[in-house]
Amino acid sequence: MSKFVILLGGAVRVTDRLLRLVAGARVLAADGGIAHAASLGLEPELWLGDFDSASPELEAQYAAVPRMEFPSEKDMTDGELALSEAYRLGATEVILCGAFGGERTDHALLHLTMATRYAAEGRKLVLSSGYEEAHPLVAGSYDFDFVNGTLFSIVAFSPLSGLFIHGARWPLENVELFFGSSLTLSNAVRGNLHVSLHSGKAILIAAPQIA
Hints:
Layout: E1 3-7, H1 16-22, E2 26-30, H2 37-40, E3 46-49, H3 56-61, E4 67-69, H4 78-88, E5 93-97, H5 105-120, E6 124-128, E7 133-137, E8 140-143, E9 151-156, E10 160-168, E11 172-177, E12 187-197, E13 202-207
Parallel strand pairs: 1-2, 1-5, 2-3, 3-4, 5-6
Antiparallel strand pairs: 6-7, 7-13, 8-12, 9-12, 9-13, 10-11, 10-12
């Protein structure tokens, strides 16, 4: 198992859960995401991007970190470039840290859909800001370690078939869910949360600091 953390430019709140999640991982930073390294106690081995959002202070602070520079006019975001590099280096598990918030809603949405795309290819990914945590869902079964009372939602990126939710305030049994449905928003953990899906693509977004 080779775990990688990719530092992205969104919001990050340092929590015990997030520190446990990133512990022992190799670290890549995407442009301004390197700003989160110090607060998380992480040392990036590579800094990637077009460096349009890295301040002069960050450039000076991390001048010794090897860089992989790209032009600003390119076909991939800095985050996707970093993810591709992590897989090239042999990543089997990736944590996208700082995947939410910030000034770019389009980037946050891309992180969610991109992670789901890779999950459909058999990759293991988690997205976290410390405030929120997201887990892609494709066909299969999933167990989560959220404490009792944790708020969570499941957002469908396609029609879902055979959706089961156990260990929740509002359980579901073999539900068909259409794309755009709000049925699975604002649930809460009651016991041991287990989700299974027969077909489709979705993402589970939880607020693990709320218990």
